[in-house]
Amino acid sequence: MAGVNAVGLSGLDGRIFEGTRKDTLRVRIDGKRMVLRDDWTGTVERINTHLLRTLLDAGYFPVLTPPAASDKGEAINVDGDRAAAMVAAAFHAEALIILSNVPGLLRNFPDEASLIREIPKHKANDFMQYAEGRMKKKVMGAVEAIDEGVQKVIFADGRIDAPLSAALAGGGTQIG
Predict the structure, then answer these.
(1) Per-residue DSSP letters for 97-152?
(2) Helix H or strand E encompassing 26
(3) From 12, 45, 55, 138, which residue has the greatest number of CB atoms within 10 Å?
(4) Same domain as 132, residue 162
């Protein structure tokens, strides 16, 4: 609708996301800690920037989703927020905006009035204690992006009109 020539791709396409399949996965089932083996999860370690640049140079805007390709060619499930952090780092992005169904990182989830507005980037990992549920992966992705050179990460509210503009204008949680 906005005139963007978007093309949807999974991380498997052209090995856009590539990484290592985890040997084991620690989970909690009915309060008990367990180890799953032969799970198909992994972590993105490399981004096929050549393919993405080719698409961008040709006027296409890639819209990327998991899964990824393992280094052995297997399809692996990866976290989308952490994959986005790796893409931002691979492109030396100034900022990464992660949209969510809350206004940002909340000190007292689900109280939206407890929004943490600013976090110094060198203290981002310290704020993991406030992350609940899916926000934990978002904070992990933010820390990874900053560690890889991204200058700013913003957790923003995807439920509002013009969420990217609002984030860039100072909305949400600004880490930088």
Answers:
(1) EEEESSSS-BTTTT-GGGB--EE-GGGGGGGGGG--TTHHHHHHHHHHHHHTT-SE
(2) strand 24-29
(3) 138
(4) yes
Can you tell me the distance from the alpha carbon of 148 to that of 75, in angstroms, rounded to the nearest whole number? 25
Number of domains in the chain: 2
Tens of pLDDT, residue by residue over 18-50, are 999 987 667 677 888 877 666 788 999 999 999
Euclidean distance between CA atoms 56 and 64, whole angstroms: 13
Domain that residue 117 falls in: 79-176
Q: What is the pLDDT of residues 69-90, one digit of tens each?
A: 999 999 999 999 999 999 999 9
Task: Say whether both 26 and 107 belong to one domain.
Answer: no
pLDDT in tens, 143-160: 999 999 999 999 999 999
Q: How many helices (H) and strands (E) does the chain have?
A: 4, 12
Q: Cα–Cα distance between 146 and 141 in angstroms, integer?
A: 9
